[in-house]
Specification:
Structural class: alpha/beta
Strand content: 25-35%
Number of strands: 17
CATH superfamily of the largest domain: Vaccinia Virus protein VP39
Distance between the termini: 23 Å
Number of domains: 2
Radius of gyration: 19 Å
CATH topology of the largest domain: Rossmann fold
Length: 285
Amino acid sequence: MRKAKHWQDYTILDAGDQEKLEKIGPYVIVRPDPVAIWPKQKPQLWNKVDASYTRSKQGGGAWTLHSSMKDEWILPYKKLKFTVSLTNFKHFGLFPEQATNWDWMQESIKASARTDLKVLNLFAYTGGATLACAQCDEVSEVAHVDASKGMVDWAKQNSTLNNLSHKTIRYFVDDCVKFVNREVKRGRRYDIVILDPPSYGRGPNNEVWKIEEQLVPLLQLIKQVLSDEPLFVLLNSYTTNLSASVIENILRCTLGENVSVEEIGLPINDSDLALPAGVSGIWKP
């Protein structure tokens, strides 16, 4: 497992009984996590929290605030900064485990000794991978695509926070499949493609995304927008039935043989345990 172990202001304090206890900057929160089915190891830490999210039997859920909290605050990671906030769908605007992918991407980009690299970030959320790539001098352009206008606006806010307004970041509120189809027709090409698709979702015009049905056709489209000398394609998945072996097979059958796949996760503070948080597959030419 590759662990995001370089956070300074974020940590998993404990996890178990299908919940995780997180410290995000100055605040401690509790969120559901279905993979944490082992017993909690530090029950005394769970007694004082700032907020907790409870799922509803009717679907969705809600936050309960146990102390005064700011509506939003800044969470730094190395040279990156993110605006975070508790959302009504359990998230806080960041997937901390992705820091291990941000590090890997930046290292790979810098080691390439390339210039004028173009990046396509699909299902780009609030822009963690977009910012990590845009920070690299070797990258000249990032196309950031997400179906949610709210998430794209959040990503723009993060870009401003990181003083990246001088970099060419093109933002698109769009269905990812339709966008890549149009890029194929336009003849646009990218050296790096990053995608972090949900299991299920809807586009801005109510387009339906089902990962089991549409991931393979999307990767086949992505193959058509790769430059003549692509650097890598990174596919991240949280879908539980898409194991590392399934991700490896999908990438091999759509893009080619040079594939590496690893589980990613987060270390649990003062523990030998780690919280699994999905699988990342990387294809290189």
